Fold this sequence. Notes:
Layout: E1 3-7, E2 18-25, E3 31-33, H1 38-43, H2 48-54, E4 64-68, E5 78-86, H3 96-109, E6 115-119, H4 125-138, H5 161-167, E7 172-176, H6 183-207, H7 215-228, E8 232-236, H8 238-244, H9 247-253, E9 261-267, E10 275-286, H10 306-321, E11 326-336, E12 348-350, E13 356-358, H11 366-378, E14 384-389, H12 393-399, E15 404-408, H13 411-424, E16 428-430, E17 448-449, H14 457-466, E18 474-479, E19 485-486, E20 497-498, H15 503-514
Parallel strand pairs: 1-7, 2-5, 2-6, 6-7, 10-11, 10-14, 13-17, 14-18, 15-16
Antiparallel strand pairs: 2-3, 4-5, 8-9, 9-11, 12-13, 15-18, 19-20
Amino acid sequence: MSALTLSTSSATTQRGDVVVIGVAKGSKGSPVVAFGGETVDKAYGGKLAATLEALGASGSEGETTKLPAPPTGLKAPVVMAVGLGEAPGKNESYDLETLRRAAGTAARALAGTKKAVFALPADDAPSVGAVTEGALLGAYAFNAYRGTADGKGKRGAKADKKEQESGAPLAEVVVVGAKARDKAHKAAADRAQVLAAEVHRARDLINTPSNDLTPAVFADQVREAAKQHSLDIEVMDEGALAKGGYGGILGVGQGSQNPPRLVRIGYKHPKAKNSLALVGKGITYDSGGISLKPAGHNETMKCDMSGAAAVFAAVVSAARLGLRVNVTGWLALAENMPSGSATRPGDVLSMYSGKTVEVLNTDAEGRLVMADALTRACEESPDAVVDVATLTGAMVLALGNRTFGVMSNDDAFRTTVHELADEAGEASWPMPMPTHLRKGMDSPVADMANIGERPGGGLVAGLFLKEFVDEDVLWAHLDIAGPAFNESGPFGYTPKGGTGSAVRTLVRLAERAAAGDLN
């Protein structure tokens, strides 16, 4: 990850490859230099805004404009102006998410650069954290399989140096206006570094091809992290799953030559008063099973383990931040493949809870592995359970590609999760749980079926999961099918490919639990 420095020095005195300033839309429609860029503007004789306007800059969010530094007054040779959108009113400040996105946009545009000085509006701890977080999240690249000499996509093979450098993320971030000796500023920057590192961990896992990330390999990576951060770890292989009666996880994974796993990773704080269980869907590849996905829907299914990646990263984040809360992550890992041993439509699975489920569609597999993991998580009586899954295409149709749905068995808790996601900078929307949709999952041969009515399919999936959560346990379901994998162009601090969606929301929830209030 990019190196980070906090500096009280002026942006004009910093040595680097580029100085990043903010530019906003003024009240008269012309761009204005944002707070933090005053000394840079002075180096241009106070004409920086006019120069940017002449170059076509407007201050629109996501816009970047590069221009050469003046002959004197700056030690960096280039200035980059990044758009912040509408300028705030008098006595108002920029929204934190605006700062995150601006810093991320600049960091992405500066891929291959060694050092960038960020002179964005950052004069208090929250804004320092936002700029730092955005810049570090934007400085991401997944190059493990690029530029290899042997053609086998193996990390460490020699590649053309110029090609490597051009594809590398921004190497060093300097945030000016931040005070390294100020405890609040430093804490905000430290938190941002942890969040960015763990979001990167999730992104790397999501972007790794399924032939290199099987359930067993995923479990091994969790083992390594658990050892590094002194976390509890338990890995149940196919033998243990069979002995324990985990029919949902086994049923999904039985068609693959790569057997399933259920991983428990736990962080404990000696002064914790609350406990939180996180459950993540970890389908390392989803072909749809016997109910095979049609052509055009298989290519990105390596991302179907994004929920497990988010849970894994969130637990490690809680440990690295030393939060006063006990957090347990449950990763339900399986590969959903068609074969002679695969579960067939019409088969009945005996779940870990004791319920039986008629599988009418093997492509509705995520809810089956999640059901077993949810039941197991509830046995430890946590104060709240939150599951995260790329569960349904129906949720994407409802909310689009950038917003995840939030469902819960408690309206107040659903509101809390939604608000915390907003604070974290992740778009979400509260969704209902209409009880009349439950009848569509009635089965003539089992306790229930794994699908119901097609309309409202995302809500049906949530209702299915609710059947496996103890009634007295506070529970929320996050369907991240839309934002988990970005197939379009990058934006803000979000890259193309795996995004690490929900990691920051889960960390905010853990912080809320550590403060003693989950509602």
